[in-house]
Amino acid sequence: MRLRTAIALIAVGGAVLAGVSCGAVLTASEDRTPIAIVPVRSDLAKIGGLSGLEVSADGTRFIALSDRSFLVFGRLARTEGKLVDAIVERRQDFVRPNGKPAPVGAGDSEGLAQAKDGSLAISLEHQDSVWRLQDDGRTKWVRPPPETDELHENGRYEALAVDDSGALYTLPETPIAQRTHVPLWKLEGRDWRKVRDIALVDRFRPVGADFGPDGALYLLERAFGVGFSNQIRRFDLNDPADPGKVIWHTDAYRRANFEGLSAWRDPQGHIRLTLVSDNNFLPFLDSAMIEISLDSLGPSR
Q1: pTM for this one?
Q2: Which domains does the chain have, with CATH numbers?
Q3: Phi, psi of 135 (to 5 degrees)
Q4: pLDDT of 105-127, one tens digit each?
Q5: Which stretches make up the Phytase-like domain (predicted)?
Q6: If we measure between CA atoms, which residue out of 104, 99, 106, 146 comes closest to residue 122?
Q7: Which of 234, 230, 277, 241 is nearest to 256 (CA)?
Q8: Residues with Cβ < 8 Å from 16, sequence gap 6 or more?
Q9: In whole angstroms, how far apart are CA 223 and each of 18, 59, 101, 193, 297?
């Protein structure tokens, strides 16, 4: 999400958000789901805007993408498996496909996906749809999906995921005018194929995605109001008629703009969903991680 969107939100809900300090530990007084939520801590300067997330298979490391064209690498501390801390250890800037350093804020890098071989790709909300990140920090341009030019500039590709075969998937945040759905695209070779349409629910829009170890697509969605609301839907892409089940919904964290999602399996065999929030480099929004075990969820809505 761009900074001007956050400013507009604050103008509407400033009385609610004012005076809240960044990094405060959030509480879940209204949430029915047992979870862990921690601030993202860093001793490095100018770390923020975290919009994409990948968690290691053992749940102890993470890579996060800032919307200011850099990655951060860090560790996740746990006590008896429960997330208790998230610490950024280093930062890596990347450069544009033309070889030039990306200016601050350039490209509005939003989505992050990591294949089994460790390779990374990022999606962009304002410019070309997807870049592949190479080991030397350079990026390689990927042809954008069809209809990209018809999308609103501030509502293109925030969500990005990669399946077990290494194929990339993306979908826009906002629909083309008059539509109530967005297309889910899969990259096959050099071309994108539409897998299906994803119906939009109420005010929620896609901002993050990941394939779980069960093969399902988990879609993180966000809505604006007096603060932020989030939900996660689970899709079985083998069933074209599956509308997606809402497996988690919350409006308890009004100042946490959750945009990044990583799905993984813990040592006990349980699927966990870890989310990261984008603070837009503003002192009254939180940079935090929240973690959910699917075993702790009640019936799908």
Answers
A1: 0.89
A2: 3-296 (2.120.10)
A3: -60, -30
A4: 555 899 999 999 999 999 988 77
A5: 46-281
A6: 106
A7: 277
A8: 226, 227, 254
A9: 20, 28, 33, 28, 21
